[in-house]
Design a protein that fits this description.
Shape: elongated
Radius of gyration: 27 Å
Order of helices and strands: HHHH
Largest sheet: none
Structural class: mainly alpha
Number of strands: 0
Helix content: over 70%
Strand content: under 5%
Distance between the termini: 77 Å
Length: 174
């Protein structure tokens, strides 16, 4: 649609606007609309899948935690609670993103192909920018992982202290 509209505008001299120009404009608007609808569909299905997975995992981990002998493992109840809350939530967040990565890869390939058709060899600049930002993304993701690990350690320590306080209160009351 976009190439046809560009060709029409380039050839337009004067006079009334042909109906095909409106059709070309409608095609230009239809592409992003289809993209938005398909992205929403993928994300909705990803969230549904992630929510089901979280339910299954939470059930399995909670059942395991109920049968857990605290003296037989290095895992504390607080660590199990953190596993239940944080890690299952990470799975929910991954599901829509996992499907999105595939779609974005295809969209990037189509976009770069269209850019190459329009600009020719000059489109390689766009490809170089995409490739150049990948290492930056890796650095950012490694930093996020370090911060997330630190947050989990702090949560585990806090839950261990809370569990210890609750056990001592149980002994005092009981």
């Amino acid at each position: 649609g976009m190439l046809l509209l560009i060709a029409y505008v380039g050839d337009y001299v004067a006079g009334p606007i042909a109906p095909k120009a409106f059709a070309f404009g409608a095609l230009v608007a239809f592409g992003p609309l289809c993209t938005a609808v398909s992205d929403a569909h993928v994300f909705a299905n990803g969230w549904l899948l992630g929510t089901k997975l979280r339910g299954y995992l939470a059930h399995a981990i909670a059942r395991k935690a109920l049968h857990l002998d605290a003296s037989a493992t290095e895992q504390s109840t607080g660590q199990m609670v953190n596993l239940l809350a944080v890690d299952t939530n990470n799975i929910v967040n991954f599901c829509p993103g996992g499907a999105w990565v595939l779609l974005e890869g295809m969209q990037l390939a189509v976009t770069l192909g269209a850019l190459y058709l329009i600009l020719g060899v000059a489109a390689t600049g766009g490809l170089l920018v995409c490739v150049a930002t990948l290492p930056l993304n890796l650095v950012v993701m490694r930093r996020v992982k370090v911060l997330q690990d630190r947050l989990m350690r702090q949560k585990d320590e806090r839950m261990a202290l809370l569990s210890e306080a609750l056990r001592s209160e149980e002994r005092r009351v009981g």
